[in-house]
Design brief:
Elements: H1 5-16, H2 20-42, H3 45-61, H4 72-94, H5 114-131, H6 136-147, H7 152-159, H8 163-183
Helix pairs in contact: 1-2, 2-3, 2-4, 3-4, 6-8, 7-8
């Protein structure tokens, strides 16, 4: 489905002015394209969803820098591609390193040390504190997605809402949570 670029550019202007319905339009209109792009690349539904969410979050945060001389969809795909490359780099840097001289692979101990466990526990406690500052429906979105690890479909069924609403609310919840964390640093 080809999207009218004039309508998209108009919605971008509205979104820059703070219109939530314009953000919703941009998300709903381009979600499937970005998600399919990532699904083709990752072959993993969860990773594709996560990268797609990150793509829209980054795009909406940097909307002021968008140049309407280009297609919005191309800009989104570029952001998405770069996020995927970043993810691949992080994953490859975490891979186990093997000595050239050894014939057998060494198994790297990935178990957290006592210090790591304490830091993780403190970080989780701080994160939960930030989440509690959100409005209850945003708390619920974060809880369902990240603590109960529900898919968008499961969340939509649980909340009895359309999936597009769930996606937008989760995006908004993540953005508000990010803003809270940045304010307190």
């Amino acid at each position: 489905m080809e999207v009218n670029q004039d309508i998209v550019n108009n919605k971008i202007i509205q979104a820059k002015a703070g219109s939530q319905s314009a953000y919703n339009y941009l998300l709903n209109t381009h979600w499937n394209m970005v998600y399919r792009f990532q699904l083709d690349r990752t072959k993993d539904e969860f990773k594709a969803e996560e990268i797609t969410i990150q793509t829209f979050a980054k795009a909406f945060n940097q909307l002021e820098s968008f140049d309407n001389a280009y297609k919005f969809s191309t800009w989104l795909i570029t952001i998405s591609k770069n996020l995927h490359i970043d993810l691949l780099r992080k994953e490859s840097s975490r891979q186990r390193h093997f000595s050239k001289d050894e014939k057998m692979n060494k198994v790297v101990d990935d178990n957290p040390t006592a210090e790591d466990a304490l830091i993780t526990e403190q970080s989780l406690s701080e994160l939960k504190g930030h989440i509690k500052k959100l409005k209850p429906h945003y708390q619920e979105m974060i809880n369902l997605r990240y603590f109960q690890e529900m898919s968008y479909k499961e969340m939509a069924q649980t909340l009895n809402e359309p999936m597009s609403n769930v996606k937008v609310k989760l995006l908004r919840a993540r953005r508000l949570l990010s803003d809270l964390i940045e304010k307190e640093q």
